[in-house]
Specification:
With 316 residues, this protein is mainly α. 69% of the residues lie in helices and 0% in strands.
C-alpha cells in the first residue's frame, strides 16, 4: 500500500508539473487568438476575453492592407531570402566543419578557436567594423585601382549574402561547430574505403561524407531558415529598405505609431472609436501571419527534426 501510494503521489506530481508547463506554453496562444479574431469594436468587452462575442477578421485584413499593401509577394520575398541564406549557410558551414574535423593543417586549432570566439562574442561588437567595411568596400585595393573609389554596399542585398558566404551570418559559427562535431563522429573507415576506391578529397566529401551528414544538414537547415526569416538585426543595418516581412512589422508597430495605426483602422473599418487593445490586436495579427510559414514548415519536418536534434553537435 505504501508503494502504491508513493507511485500515485509521484504520478500526480508529474501530471501536475506537465499540465502546468503546457499551460504556461499555451497561455499566450489562448489569449492571443481571441484578441485577433474579435471584432475591433468588441475588444476589451468582458464577454470577449476567451471567446469572441462578435467574430471578426479585421486584424488579419489590416495586415494584408497595411503591412503587405495587398501584395502577398512580400511574404514570398522574405521566404526566398531565408531559403537562399539557409542554402549558403549550410553549404559553407558544412565545408568549414569538415575541414576542421577531418583535415590536419597548421593553425587548425586557432581557426576553431576563432569560430567559437565569434559565437561567444556578442555580434554587436563586430557591428562598427562590419558597417565601415561594407560602407567602404574594396578587395585588395582593386576597386581603388580600376575605379578610383571604393564601393558602398550598405543598403544593398548583396551585403547579407556576403556575410553568409564568409561565415558571419546569423549564428553561422554555431552551424560550423555542429558540422565539425558531426563529422568528427563519423568513422575513419568511410574515408579509407573511399580512398581505396580511388576517390579524391572532394569526391570523398561530396559522395561519402556529406550524404552521411543528412540528419545534421536537416537540423542546421531548419535552424538557419528560421533565424534568417526572423532576422531583423542584419537586415535593419545592412539592407534597411529591403522587403523583409519581419523588418516591416518591426518598423510599423513602434509605440510612436500607436495613434496612426488606430486612426487608420478606424477609417478602414468604419469604426467610431478603438480602444488601446486595437493596436495590440493588429500587432499580434501581424506576428501570427509572420509565423504561419514557419509553423507550416515545422509541421512537415518536426518528426525528423526531433529525431536528429539530439545527435547533431554532441557526438565526438
Amino acid at each position: 500500500m505504501k508503494s502504491k501510494a508513493r507511485r500515485l503521489l509521484i504520478n500526480l506530481f508529474l501530471a501536475s508539473l506537465i499540465i502546468g508547463i503546457c499551460f504556461a506554453i499555451l497561455y499566450p496562444i489562448l489569449t492571443l487568438l481571441p484578441m485577433i479574431f474579435t471584432d475591433l469594436r468588441e475588444l476589451g468587452a468582458p464577454d470577449s476575453i476567451w471567446i469572441p462575442s462578435k467574430f471578426g477578421v479585421n486584424s488579419i485584413e489590416f495586415v494584408f492592407r497595411s503591412i503587405l499593401q495587398g501584395k502577398p509577394v512580400i511574404i514570398l520575398q522574405s521566404l526566398l531570402y531565408a531559403f537562399s541564406i539557409c542554402a549558403i549557410q549550410v553549404f559553407m558551414s558544412a565545408m568549414a566543419g569538415y575541414a576542421l574535423a577531418r583535415t590536419d593543417f597548421k593553425g587548425r586549432n586557432i581557426v576553431f578557436f576563432l569560430v567559437i570566439f565569434v559565437f561567444l562574442i556578442p555580434r554587436q561588437s563586430f557591428l562598427i567594423t562590419q558597417y565601415l567595411h561594407f560602407k567602404h568596400f574594396d578587395v585588395l585595393g582593386l576597386f581603388q585601382l580600376f575605379l578610383g573609389h571604393d564601393v558602398d554596399l550598405i543598403n544593398q542585398p548583396i551585403t547579407l549574402y556576403l556575410l553568409a558566404i564568409f561565415g558571419f551570418s546569423v549564428n553561422q559559427s554555431l552551424f560550423i561547430f555542429i558540422f565539425r562535431q558531426a563529422f568528427m563522429g563519423m568513422p575513419q573507415e568511410l574515408e579509407d574505403a573511399a580512398m581505396i576506391d580511388g576517390a579524391g578529397f572532394y569526391r570523398t566529401y561530396f559522395k561519402v561524407m556529406l550524404p552521411n551528414a543528412v540528419p545534421t544538414i536537416l537540423t542546421v537547415a531548419v535552424l538557419a531558415f528560421v533565424w534568417a526569416y526572423g532576422d531583423t538585426y542584419y537586415t535593419n543595418y545592412f539592407h534597411t529598405d529591403g522587403p523583409y516581412f519581419g523588418v516591416i512589422i518591426d518598423k510599423t508597430f513602434k509605440d510612436a505609431n500607436n495613434w496612426y495605426i488606430n486612426n487608420q483602422a478606424r477609417q478602414w473599418f468604419d469604426t467610431a472609436d478603438t480602444n488601446e487593445l486595437a493596436f495590440e490586436a493588429l500587432k499580434q495579427a501581424s506576428i501570427l501571419t509572420f509565423l504561419t510559414p514557419l509553423l507550416i514548415i515545422y509541421f512537415f519536418v518536426q518528426k525528423r527534426l526531433v529525431e536528429n536534434l539530439d545527435r547533431a553537435g554532441i557526438v565526438g
